[in-house]
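hi! just following up on the protien thing from before. the input was this:
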Amino acid sequence: MISDIRVCASWQEHHDGPVYTLASTCPVCGSDAVNSAPAPYDPTDRYGEYRRALKRRAHE
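and the predicted 3d structure came back as:
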């Protein structure tokens, strides 16, 4: 999924919280801005079952 909303790539080092923008650079610090959308869901993911099992074990 491609979103028009971008977030500062180095917000954890330079800002107190995420800085969102529509531009390709951060308006505050000038570093690159990256896509803020999460990775797409893939129903044919081979390792999804294993990843979910590891996540369940970590919460137990």
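The mean pLDDT is 86.
Helices lie at 11-14, 48-59.
cheers
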